[in-house]
Amino acid sequence: GALSFFRENSDQPTKADPAFFRWRYESHPLGSSLELCQAVLDGPAVVGFLGVLRDRLLVSGSWLDCVWILELSIVEGARGGPALAELLGNVMERFPIVLATGVAPHMQRVYRSLKWVQRSVVKTHTRIIRLLPLTRVLRASNRLSTPLRALSPVLAAADAVSPYFQHLYESAFRPTPSGIGVQTIVHFDQEWDHFFHLHEASLGITTLRNAAILNWKLCEQPNGTNLLLAARDTGGAIVGYMAAKLLCRPGVASWVEIVDTVVASLHPDAFDMLISEVVRFALRRRASCVRFRCSDDRLNRRLPAFLWLERGVPVIDDQFAYAADPAVRDIFANC
Fold first, then answer.
1. Which of 55, 91, 204, 250 is most solvent-facing, going by the fewest CB within 10 Å?
2. Is-above-0.70 flag for pTM?
3. DSSP states along 106-147
């Protein structure tokens, strides 16, 4: 079945873990997505898989049902035939809105030929902590240039001292806005429903956040290391939230990915405190970098340019959106 397919064709062992598979596709608060997934068969063998996740999307003040494509994989021998078009065609027929991100560049023309809207909605910033692991990432993806190879001794020396100076900087310039404190989140309760409802209108086109969904997404995942932070004012009211994951490519690099953040518009300095805590977490974990992808320019502008490198990956960082309703498609194209 699907687990055998992932064991044989994925370089991510968690995808073949039964507990992870059940969590991902069967236990979402909006309902199981298992019956929505599709498999491509060659006789009894699975040679392709499309996995989706239920969600809701806020568009022009209305919540609309949608699904995200989490997995779209076809073995090399089965590519080039009708399987890909059939998988995407089926999901487009069944759901009024379908979303995808992390799309491989060679797939861009496929989505665009099917009239999906390509949206460049986020800016990607990276806080580099250690240089050598990042050069291994570039080498693994064939993006390490000859001049960089020649500078390897210099990079090695910089790699040795960079974490030390990052520690010094965070200690000397740690933000301390009066009246705001940062706490670790263990579990999301009903007060979070109120916080997200209060601020959802300021987030533009956005997905559904509530306590049940965030507990599923960030607290109940069967593996992985997450850092969940809340910023509160002196009265205990929530004024910001940030979620980060420690990710790893074995033998190459580890990094911290900030996967979600919401900050009250009246307390932008809460963002400074939250992201400082994430950087300190990355330093403790000896991560190579912190990556932050965000569509809110109000927050992006608060990142010091001399510390945070703005550089995204074309296509992969974009969002692709299909909408059966032409009016919704126009909103996607113009927002």
1. 250
2. yes
3. GGHHHHHHTTPEEE---EEEEEE--HHHHHHHHHHTT---HH
